[in-house]
Amino acid sequence: MNQIELTEKEKSLHELALKCNFKNDFEENQKSLDALLDLTESLIAREAIPKNRLKYFLDRDFQHGRTKLSRKEVFESNGTKGKQIFRHPNFIKYVDYFINGANVPSDLYDVAKSIFESNNYQDDAIEKIFDYLKLRNYISKERYERNKFADEIFKLSVDLGFDSQNCIYIRKRIMKQI
Length: 178
Fold this sequence. Notes:
Blueprint: H1 8-17, H2 26-45, H3 51-58, H4 71-77, H5 92-100, H6 106-118, H7 122-135, H8 143-160, H9 164-176
Helix pairs in contact: 1-2, 3-8, 6-7, 7-9, 8-9
């Protein structure tokens, strides 16, 4: 779909970083977190992370939760600053998004991208994407699954280049579906 190209070294680092698990021993996790730091620094140095995906992490406007802080600022408010953010276990999910984009089916990605590119107005495009989600029964009735899906659609909207208001709007619409 919309995965960024990784160098061979980055592929190895990514694989090792994903092994971080609290069931592992301390040393194994430290190696995984070191790999996460090295991977992130490499992606930043190569400017490989798409700008829209960086907005998801850095821009307060793309925060849909109760907090008015960016995702980066949340780390900082909890005492994790600078490069230590890139070694934090909770940062793994952000690197995964930076690399792979939103976790949605490829047909959904293709349709959403086509709708976005063929509409002059973002409001119209976001409504058409929502209608497609309803038509294809993508929206789960179960709240936990719906929440995860809404987050992925939010990320997809960010990835495609929608402004923050439309990204938040479609997520809220999905969450209100019963």
